[in-house]
Write the structure tokens for this entry.
Amino acid sequence: MSNLNKIVCLVTGASSGIGKQTAIRISNIADHVYILSRDVSKLEIVNDHIINNGSDCTIVPMDLTKKNNIKELAKNIYEKENKIDIVISSAGRINQLSPIGSQNEDEVIKTFELNYLSNLLLMKEFLPLLKLSSNGKFIIISSMYNAFKSQYWSGYQPIMTALNELVRIYAEENKNIRVNCICPSAVDTNFRNDIMPGEDKKLIFKPEQIAENIIKTILDDTIQSGEIISI
């Protein structure tokens, strides 16, 4: 198969939770999936699922907060694939919820670097590759503000609100690709366990359910670029 006809996809945060399940499900339509995380052993499990789905897979151990890593990755994928069709950014972090007076500024900086800055750099470095696709899409798993996230979320939600605005700007600047934020409802992941210990898991979604909705959203070409989508 020529590179022109291949569907090439990149998924960050692919070792667990929503990123893992989305990477596995996108391999049903993608010919090659690049999966990113710092945890190689977990990526190897995802790799096996993707291969079983009939797609090629490349494991990329990476710390996204190191900006030169993103630049080098984009260069390597360009040299191999000459394009990228779908980028799904699922990597993220959150520190323990606390009032502003108790926030650890170092933890807030780490959250900003991964949740916001790494996405800005992914947008920048992969833009030329997305433009080479006939149907380039950049999807970020994000979070939408609601009243529930008013108190104690100062180290996370303002960063995600800024990220959503960044997506809107990116969409306005680049009419030839589609970019969206997808904001899932409560999901049973390790990410959520850190901030909601003891929560009744029967009342929240499984990552598999959210991943199915993410794939449906990606494939729905009636969705406008720049939309912030709750699922």
